[in-house]
């Protein structure tokens, strides 16, 4: 790999490592989000608590995490700058078109801007009469200015991307199993930039129509038609179940097995919680973001395997939609409405084996830096433990601790 390519890969890996803290809180909140939903416990405040880590809030968590992680000395000002930059960029962009939704991509962009600008301007000198705004205090200001410009740029360009994907999705659905496969690949590849929801909206909520013979109500979209009893619906969602319930948990197992021995205790708990969340609720973003930037090649492989799963499910006439995501809860809830739904379990077993061995092969063959394999992973944990002990000693003996200024 060229020196430039190595720098790019190293930078992506720094972003990936910066996402570890935000990702760590998602499994528990994801379970709360699903359990509090209307078709389960129907307790809005539980669902609301779980939703704290998703939607725009997930983008904000990413902005803070990346801004903090990319800044020198992991300074909190970088995280604050990332958050402020995201809010400015989002508000400016949506002022052009309220339908603009950049998803987690907006948080990643703002976090990168905040972290990099912190490193560049943390020691900046300003005229004496503006001295209060010098140094680190200047970072959120310049980050807001840069993100304002980015907000204008995305405000003009993002609707064009969305419209293009909308039209492409309508063409794609006419291609049968091949179209389902292409949709599956793009659905995953577009997650990093937040445009997957555009294709999902077309296919899940606009594709086709079905009139309920009893109530006369008209349902549109693959999911809505399935829930209304349309026997032809549910073909664009069934293929997600094997990936979410089996494939990605197997990827977690492979990444755990490939982690350095001294790091397995640290990453083991994380991978277990991520895998269980995916199996039970179908929430997979925490897993995907765990290796998306650290090992982009694995994410491309994952996208291709998702496309294959959707194409196979379509070809085998498997019908099973979901109201939340492709996890065990929705599988059980809608099992009675589906067709050939047991095939999903067989496909899942195949997906588990394929994901496990493919991830193992690529991680070892190309020495991919998945969680627990990074060169400085153990150093970071030692630093964290040292800082924790230092804080603990200072609390036990305040006279020897530092002062707040």
Word description of this protein:
67% of the residues lie in helices and 1% in strands. The protein has 405 residues and is mainly alpha-helical. The protein has two domains: 6-177, no CATH class; 239-375, no CATH class. It has a two-stranded antiparallel ribbon. Strand 1 and strand 2 (218-220) form a beta hairpin. Helix 2 (20-35) packs antiparallel against helix 13 and helix 4 runs antiparallel to helix 5 (76-96). The longest helix is centred in the middle third of the chain and has 35 residues, at 138-172. The N and C termini lie far apart (47 Å). It is a multi-pass membrane protein. Residues 6-375 form the PTS EIIC type-1 domain. Residues 374-405 are annotated as: Disordered. InterPro entries: PTS_EIIC (IPR003352), PTS_EIIC_1 (IPR013013), PTS_Glucose_EIICBA (IPR050429).
Topology:
Elements: H1 3-18, H2 20-35, H3 44-50, H4 56-70, H5 76-96, H6 104-121, H7 138-172, H8 176-189, H9 196-205, E1 209-211, E2 218-220, H10 222-228, H11 240-258, H12 264-281, H13 285-292, H14 296-315, H15 328-333, H16 343-365, H17 377-396
Antiparallel strand pairs: 1-2
Domain PTS EIIC type-1: 6-375
Protein name: Probable PTS system enzyme
Main location: membrane
